[in-house]
Amino acid sequence: MKVDIVIVGGGLAGLALAAALRGSRYAVAVVEGRVPQAPAGLDARIYAISPSNAAFLADIGIWKHLDAARMQAVERMEVFGDRSGHIGFSAYDTGVSELAWIAESSLLHQELWETVKRQANVQLLCPARPEALTVGEHAATLQLADGRTLVADLVIAADGSDSWTRKALGVAVDFRHYEQLGVVANFACSEPHRGTAFQWFREDGILAWLPLPGKRISMVWSTPKANGEALCTLSPAELCARVAAAGEHRLGALELLTPPAGFPLRLMRAPRTVGPRFALVGDAAHAIHPLSGHGINLGFQDARVLAETLNGLRGFEHCGDVLSLRPYERRRREEVVALQTMTDGLFRLFVPQNAPLVWLRNTGMNLTGKLPVLRDALVRYALG
Ligand SMILES: Cc1cc2nc3c(=O)[nH]c(=O)nc-3n(C[C@H](O)[C@H](O)[C@H](O)COP(=O)(O)OP(=O)(O)OC[C@H]3O[C@@H](n4cnc5c(N)ncnc54)[C@H](O)[C@@H]3O)c2cc1C
Question: Which residue, by CA, sits nearest to atom 39 of ligand 1?
Answer without folding.
Answer: 159
